[in-house]
């Protein structure tokens, strides 16, 4: 019989998919690492598993313990699945810009969720960083993975994502492009790829316009899960060779094209990363292989990016192009 013992065994080993349509006019091969094939639907399953298993080994997380974490959703899903399988309780803190869809998913897996305002400084007592610190202090048996500073976050990518990409491309990858949130993905994957290629692989970060990584002050932008208003410890800036800043509009329009043209229903940070990857690929030749990592699925953004009215409200659609036909219109 062929079966897996637990969802935990299905983390990682995601497929690489060639982009054929949005790459029109580009000579390089552009491959997408499609992370929504992870059991929790995002790249964050990788770090959840690594962080929890390391905490078990170190004794920081003990039987009956409570996992407390500020998370924009995907890390929460990964942690919730691994925690549920291993018998831990989860208590998550989310900023209020995160879609209700994502919060409901966390609750479906049995996690408890506290929602905090986005429009306050990180130092404010109600900021999602401070609320989670308070919950850690007040909850017996609490352990905070802290994906922003936990070395097991980049380490999970150094041990899984990086080696997978090297094997899948048979060592032919020349460029790696990813968004930067905590910085774990780009730092761990990038470091592995640089080491194994003797520095030949170029590592490019894609960043929302306004975020600190591309020289901004942290001005609010709408792409979720990427960009920051501070520099997390999980991000190793020596690994990144170049950062490309991408607007919300370009990110979301590309996200919609990926669904329409490539059959990839993915999140807004994926569209952003692809815009960055295409910018890099445009100057390259036929022997170059650009891999862009797509962190999550589009299912959590149906009422935003894939909703014409929402897109129109922000001026993100060309010519007001609502495409919902009413009965009688057709
Ligand atoms: N995209 C989405 C949707 C995410 O949730 C995250 C994680 N915050 C990222 C991209 C960025 O990944 P990382 O934290 O590894 O930099």
UniProtKB/TrEMBL annotation:
Cofactor(s) it depends on: pyridoxal 5'-phosphate
Protein's UniProt keywords contain Lyase: yes
Keyword entries, A-Z: CBS domain, Lyase, Pyridoxal phosphate
Catalytic activity, EC: 4.2.1.22
Renumbered residue ranges of the record's region Disordered: 140-163
GO molecular function annotations of the record: cystathionine beta-synthase activity
Catalytic activity field: L-homocysteine + L-serine = L,L-cystathionine + H2O
Pathway: Amino-acid biosynthesis; L-cysteine biosynthesis; L-cysteine from L-homocysteine and L-serine: step 1/2
EC supergroup of this enzyme: lyase
Keyword check for Lyase: yes
Similarity comment: family membership: Belongs to the cysteine synthase/cystathionine beta-synthase family.
Protein name: Cystathionine beta-synthase
